[in-house]
Amino acid sequence: MIIGQFMAILDIQIVAASLSQIQSGIGASADEMSWVQTVYLLAEVVIMPLTAYLTRMWGTRKFFIGACILFIVSSILTGLTTSIESMIFMRAVQGIAGGAMIPVVFATAFTIFPPERRITANVIVGLIVTLAPTVGPTLGGHLTDIASWRWLFFVNVPPGLLALFLVWRYGDFDKGDPTLSKGIDWWGVCLMAIGLLSIQYVLEEGAKDSWFQDDMILWLTVLGVITFGAFIWRQLTYQQPIVSLKPFTDRNFSIGIVMTLVSGMSLYGGTFVLPLFLAQIRQYSAAETGTTMLVSGLTMFLTGPIAGRIVRQFDPRVGMVLGFAIAAYGTGLGHAVTNDWGFWEFAYLQAFRGVGVMIAMIASQQMTVSTIPVHMMKDASALVNLTRNVGGAVGLAMLSTALTQQTARHYNELTSAMSIASAQTQNLMAGLSARMAQLGVADPEGAGYKAVGGMIHREAAILAFGDAFALLAVGLAFAGVLALFASPAKNQPASGGRGH
């Protein structure tokens, strides 16, 4: 099942380093291309809360197999698309299928294994959750360079077929309850879909549309808040809720949800900021960006067993505080980023961030469900995974806004500090004008001013990226402090437990 989960999470970010190649391949505009990622996330967040109800109704094996088949077929059709409209539609279908598989794996890991095996299962699931979005740009960049962008989607087929066979052969560990098909809360489904789609769209597109200055963003925010509020009221009062909110009565779960939100912001935010810096400032190719990003994935992979031992031996709060502190330190190093940073500087940053995020993610997952009854685990899993994705959307929205605003602020500060009358500025302008004249430019002085403006804007953008890394570090530090307020939860012994 984790093979299917890995594919589903991987496909969120696998297109990140190859959007320009896809854009030229299907003749789309830059605005249209943003929907290739956005629509996948929109579809995921709508289906995730429904997975607990649907797996209870159909059974885990039937539900997962159906989702896996849909994911394979939609991946093939996405790779065969020739227009942006068909690609957006197929990415939406792919997002529904992927979003259906992700929470089911988490719930299964914490229900079918005996207590003494759950931390090991948690390590494996946590490894996939953190590793997949990190290696996504790496794999995507190299696949595009070696073959073509269409293989970003075709690559899902072999592991998809393997997952399909294995789950069909070995995944029969529960039965569905067909009676749940009667009395489905369709009003709740509609309110949830409208609310989540509206809020997710606002988070994804708000930064580029100047937030509430755009009428559509403003009214979608109002619509999202009203419908989501109505959905919560409906679930609390309806006799057969489509999404159970009972896990929120558990203190550890409620605190863990907040930490999941923050870790989602860091996980997806980090894989957004770094590739963007490498592409825009360092002018790296997709393959070069992927190679640089690989350090984080390798670090997480190697840290997984260590993180599992820490969580097994100590109170989960120790792992959460330690993990978030290390991740905050590593991410905070990016505040000093310059144009001269290369592979090793980013490797150092990613190593600390990778170790910290891995430990914090596994510890927080363990703590979040440590006091949740087994019969509520499917509902808890759906809510945890939904929160992680929403956290990623919040993180991307905050970082996009911060980059835009901070670049403008730093640009104004740099230009105001640069006197046109100073000898240094005059010498720079004279040198640039002379260079432009040698190149045969019609207006060498005007071209010189334009070149200076570009240099200042580049420096302002670098400073803004440093601010974005600092913002992520503050969020991680906040999560580490919040972890102290969780209730102690005793871990199960490594051996001697009894399975259920």
UniProtKB/TrEMBL annotation:
Give the top-rank taxon of the lineage listed in the UniProt record for this protein: Bacteria
Q: Which GO terms describe its cellular component?
A: plasma membrane
List residues of the Major facilitator superfamily (MFS) profile domain: 1-491
Q: Where in the cell is it found?
A: Cell membrane
Q: Where are the transmembrane segments?
A: 63-82, 88-112, 119-139, 151-171, 183-203, 215-233, 253-278, 290-311, 318-337, 343-363, 460-486
Q: Name one GO molecular function term.
A: transmembrane transporter activity
UniProt entry keywords in alphabetical sequence: Cell membrane, Membrane, Transmembrane, Transmembrane helix, Transport
Pfam families linked to this entry: MFS_1
- Do the record's keywords include Transmembrane helix? yes
Entry annotated with the keyword Transmembrane: yes
Q: How does it sit in the membrane?
A: Multi-pass membrane protein
- Similarity comment text for this entry: Belongs to the major facilitator superfamily. EmrB family.
Q: Which PANTHER family match?
A: MAJOR FACILITATOR SUPERFAMILY MULTIDRUG TRANSPORTER MFSC
State the protein's name. Answer: MFS transporter
